[in-house]
Amino acid sequence: MKRIFLIGLFLALTACGQNYRDSSVQMTSMAIFDAQKYEGLWYEVARFPAPFQAGCTNTEAEYAVIAPGTLSVRNSCMKDGRLTVIEGSAKVVGPGRLKVRLGGVPFAGDYWVLWVDESYRTAVVGAPSGRVGWILNREPQIPADRLNAARQVLDFNGYRLSEMVMTQQDAP
Predict the structure, then answer these.
(1) How far is the C-alpha of 101 from the C-alpha of 89, rounded, in Å?
(2) H or E element in which residue 2 lies
(3) Beta bridge pairs of residue 123
(4) 37 — phi, psi (to 5°)?
(5) Measured CA angle at 121 (ends 116, 123), to 5 deg
(6) Given pLDDT bands bounded at 50, 70 and 90, which one contains residue 4?
(7) Which of 19, 59, 69, 105 is the most buried (most CB within 10 A)?
(8) pLDDT band per the 50, 70, 90 thresholds, residue 52
(9) What gap in Å lies between CA 57 and CA 72, rounded to an integer?
(10) DSSP string covering 5-50
(11) What is the pTM of this model?
(12) Could you tell me which residues come within 8 angstroms of residue 3 by beta carbon, excluding any fewer than 6 positions away?
């Protein structure tokens, strides 16, 4: 019963979540996306606030190719001094477009890879709904030039950069 309540609460919070992008702006995803290069550990360096991430620090996402066009997903963060983890899978449904299913969440989310630098060191992920968006990096700290490039991609896709927050990443 508690699990059903928590899932219901998550759905309600997600449905009521703020929209951080201008939906009149056409959103674009990576035309050439390589899931094998994308796999591995990513550190969240910035995000648009989402209820399910409230209080999260040291946020990480880890992807692994488990079949052609399918990746495992493991998202984690520190919340109230404890490690919080949710796992699931992501199916590539178009160029740079993922349909992500996470354990305990009864629906799949649209996560679009908007940009990845040439060496797959920095990535920008968003959603057509505009309710979420992230800047990911292979290291906990991101160089200023790549942070600036990532922010430009979000701006180009209609995101309101003034509402983005940097994610606390403590040194290992």
Answers:
(1) 5
(2) helix 2-15
(3) 116, 136
(4) -75, -25
(5) 35
(6) very low
(7) 59
(8) confident
(9) 22
(10) HHHHHHHHHHHTPPP-B-TTSPP---SS--HHHH-EEEEEEEE---
(11) 0.88
(12) 104
